[in-house]
UniProtKB/TrEMBL annotation:
This is EGF-like domain-containing protein. Disulfide bonds join C264-C274, C283-C292. Residues 260-293 form the EGF-like domain. The keyword Hydrolase does not apply. The keyword 4Fe-4S does not apply. Residues 1-18 form the signal peptide. It comes from the Eukaryota. Keywords: Disulfide bond, EGF-like domain, Repeat, Signal. It holds the Pfam family EGF_2.
Length: 301
């Protein structure tokens, strides 16, 4: 390269790179690079020939600039917020980056990466997300479970990907499709963009829940927010059948049947009314016991 061409290369600003901000160029700024741009605020590398900063992750690097469509600052002084798959977003054709690197089906791309997952406001002072109601997580990338977000203190708030593999999460099933995308650990390679984002309650129980022997088909605490409590269970003393035997009985939700020795939960033995707020039985006349499982021999029927 001749000295004249080299001098021109130093003095003339280069073409703008995609999603990068090119700043007013002077010979001094071009030669001395980013010293006059606060040395990229300690969050980037100076590219003197381009007269611009290349910011690090968290301050608008190339990937973040592509997702956002812009850089938040020319000198890497303004932080970005955590990114997650958008809860909304418009699909774009495959082969384009208009959707910001989202995931979708075979004919399009959707749910692009977005700051705060498009469900929160980015605080540019701190680089943290202020989430909208019913969303949580560093990138507002998780739904809040009912019961004030904590399942009323009587359950665990878990994502669908985890619940799909649990034997005690409702609806009960022993015929789990382990090839389903919800069983795969890495959401980057599945179409189930929401497998970690959508969350629900798996309620607590003092007894084992499931379809196996000595397990019950229903948990002690129940309801979407685990705020209701079942009453003691028992066999109806007025019938010859064992109502607590759930062998080959279809579990609530219609997904699985009880194995041999599986138990049905019968609130108050069918001979009382359950107060689901307190989990206590109000027995019908002629019956008594914690589960109304006893019959008064002197009662008239």
């Amino acid at each position: 390269m001749t000295p004249l061409i080299l001098l021109l290369a130093l003095l003339l600003p280069p073409p703008a790179s995609p999603n990068a901000q090119v700043f007013p160029s002077t010979a001094t700024a071009t030669i001395y690079g980013c010293n006059q741009l606060n040395d990229c605020s300690g969050h980037g590398a100076c590219r003197s020939l381009k007269n611009e900063c290349e910011c690090t992750r968290g301050y608008g690097d190339a990937q973040e600039a592509e997702w956002m469509g812009y850089r938040p600052s020319y000198d890497c002084s303004v932080p970005t917020c955590p990114f997650g798959y958008s809860w909304g977003g418009l699909p774009a054709p495959n082969g384009t980056h208009a959707a910001g690197g989202g995931i979708g089906g075979s004919t399009g791309r959707a749910h692009p990466k977005a700051e705060c997952s498009d469900r929160g406001h980015c605080d540019r002072e701190t680089g943290t997300c202020v989430c909208l109601p019913n969303f949580r997580g560093g990138a507002c990338d998780y739904s809040v479970c009912p019961g004030k977000g904590d399942c009323s203190g009587h359950g665990k708030c878990l994502p669908m990907q985890v619940m799909a593999q649990m034997d005690n999460a409702l609806p009960l099933s022993k015929n789990q499709n382990t090839t389903s995308a919800y069983f795969q650990p890495d959401p980057e390679f599945t179409k189930t963009w929401d497998q970690y984002k959508m969350q629900g309650c798996v309620c607590d129980s003092s007894w084992a829940v499931g379809l196996e022997r000595d397990e019950r088909q229903e948990p002690e605490w129940f309801g979407p927010d685990c705020s209701l409590k079942r009453c003691p269970s028992g066999d109806n003393p007025d019938t010859a059948a064992d109502e607590t035997d759930c062998t080959d009985v279809l579990a609530p939700g219609g997904r699985g049947r009880g194995r041999a020795g599986n138990k049905c939960h019968v609130d108050c033995s069918g001979k009382g009314k359950c107060d689901f707020k307190s989990g206590t039985c109000m027995c019908f006349p002629g019956h008594y016991g914690p589960a109304c499982e006893l019959r008064d021999a002197l009662a008239a029927f």
